[in-house]
What we know:
Pfam families: DUF167 (PF02594). Belongs to the UPF0235 family. It is built from 1 helix and 5 strands, in the order E-E-E-H-E-E. The protein has one helix at residues 54-67; strands at residues 20-27, 34-38, 41-45, 74-78, 84-89. It is globular, with a radius of gyration of 12 Å.
Amino acid sequence: xxxxxxxxxxxxxxxxxxxxxxxxxxxxxxxxxxxxxxxxxxxxxxxxxxxxxxxxxxxxxxxxxxxxxxxxxxxxxxxxxxxxxxxxxxx
Length: 91
């Protein structure tokens, strides 16, 4: 059984720029994977638990799909153990 398809994600491609910092707030162990943008703040809900970096990896993957870049183009700059994270886009 493969990963479920990510659907109905907002288009965040306008935030892609070389070395752009993208701040997000993550909620792990959610009922479903989704992204909400409220007042310019990106909130990411993921089903992965915050253990052994699984939540960070899942956040990177869903954010990459919404941005339209490869997951390897996103580097976690701050927030390895926090809900408030900052990714740097290397695309």
